Amino acid sequence: xxxxxxxxxxxxxxxxxxxxxxxxxxxxxxxxxxxxxxxxxxxxxxxxxxxxxxxxxxxxxxxxxxxxxxxxxxxxxxxxxxxxxxxxxxxxxxxxxxxxxxxxxxxxxxxxxxxxxxxxxxxxxxxxxxxxxxxxxxxxxxxxxxxxxxxxxxxxxxxxxxxxxxxxxxxxxxxxxxxxxxxxxxxxxxxxxxxxxxxxxxxxxxxxxxxxxxxxxxxxxxxxxxxxxxxxxxxxxxxxxxxxxxxxxxxxxxxxxxxxxxxxxxxxxxxxx
Amino acid sequence: xxxxxxxxxxxxxxxxxxxxxxxxxxxxxxxxxxxxxxxxxxxxxxxxxxxxxxxxxxxxxxxxxxxxxxxxxxxxxxxxxxxxxxxxxxxxxxxxxxxxxxxxxxxxxxxxxxxxxxxxxxxxxxxxxxxxxxxxxxxxxxxxxxxxxxxxxxxxxxxxxxxxxxxxxxxxxxxxxxxxxxxxxxxxxxxxxxxxxxxxxxxxxxxxxxxxxxxxxxxxxx
Lengths: 273, 222
Hints:
The complex is a heterodimer. Chain A is an alpha/beta fold. Helix content of chain A is 36%, strand content 25%. In chain B, helix 1 crosses helix 4, helix 1 (6-44) runs antiparallel to helix 6 (130-160) and helix 5 packs antiparallel against helix 6.
C-alpha cells in the first residue's frame, strides 16, 4: 500500500444516494500478478450483488479486501460513507491503522467456503463469542440474540453441539448466524455452498433467501450456483481478468449477455451442470 | 561378583525416597518455567517485529544445539564473574527451565502452525482482538496437537534432573553418589535410582495419554 497521502479521493461519501460499499480505482497485485485492475464498484444499501466469473478472475479477492483480510495496492474502498482501507488525516487519506480498521470492520460480516467455525466451541458459543467479547453485550442478551438467530437458520435444536457433530450444511447455517450476531451492515458470502454436498445446498441457500426477503442487509456473494444467483440477486457482476466484464440485472445478464466472454462463461457453466 | 545386599538396600531407601521429592520438585518447577517461558518464546517468534523474531529464533537454536550440562555450569560458575551469584537450586532451575522452554517453544510452534488459516480469518471477521484470538481461539486448538510433545518433554526434564547434581543440587543422583562415596557400595544406590526413575516415568507417560484424550474431549474435538 502506498504510504503517501491520497488527495484526489473524498474523505467521506455524503448524500442520500451514497452507496453502502464503494470500490474506487482499486488495484490488487500479488507480485507481478494483477488480481484486480482499477476496480470501480458501488453497492447500494440493501442491495444483493452476486459476483460470478471463472476462477482467478478476482471475485473472492473483492470480498477478502472488504473484510480487510487483504490489503490493497491502489485506490480506496468506502463502507457506509467512510473510507475502509484508509483513514482521514491532515485533510487527506492515509492507509488505515489497526485501530481504525477494527472500528470499520464492525460494519462487515463474512461467511466462508469452509465455514471456519471454532471447533472447540458449541454452536451457540460460536455465536456468542463476538457479541460478548467484541460488542461487550451482557451474556444473557448475547445468548438471547444468538438463540433467535439459530432459530432463524433452523439450528436451535443443535445449539449445544460442537461443529464436529454437525453436517456441512448445518455448520454453514451456524456460521451465518454467527456472522449476523454481530449485526453487520454488509454481509459477504464467499462460495458458501461450494464445499457442501449437493443435497444440503438448499438448506443454506434457503437461509440466504430468507435474509434477502426479510432484512435490509447489503450483501455481496460469490457463487457458482447460477440458478441461485439468478433467483435472488438484484444485480450480477461477471468478473474476468480482474475487471467487471459485464454487469446487470440477473434476467438480462443470464438471459441476454452482451459480451462474448460472458456468453462463453455462461454456456460453459450450463454444459457442466 | 554379584553381591546384592537387601539390608543395605532398605537402609538407604528412605534417604533416596526423600531425594526423590527433590527430584520431583526440580522437574516440576523446571517444567512449570519451561511451559510458560516456552509459550513466550513461541509467540515472540510470531510477532511482526523482525529483530525480536530473529533474536528469539537464534536463542532457541543456540540453546537446543548446546548440551544442558554446559548450560548448567555456565549459569552457576560463569554467572558470578558477572556479579550474578545464584544458589545451586536457582541456577539449576533457570538453566533447565530455559533449556526445556526452547524445546517446548518448538512444540508450541508446530501446534500453532497446525491451526488452519481459516480460524485466524474467522477471528478477524468477528473483529476479535489479537489477544482474544490467541488465547481463546488459536491456543486452545494448538494445545491438543502439542500435548504429546509436551508429555515427552515432561518425562525428558524428569530424566535430566540428575544433571543438576553437578552443581550440588541434592536430588536423587546426587544422593546416590553421596551414599556410594560414604559406603563404597554403588550397586544398590544406582539400581534403586534406576528403579525409582522407571517407576515414575512409565505411569507418567501413560497418564499423559489419558490426559491428552481428556483434553480433546473437553474441547469437543474428537
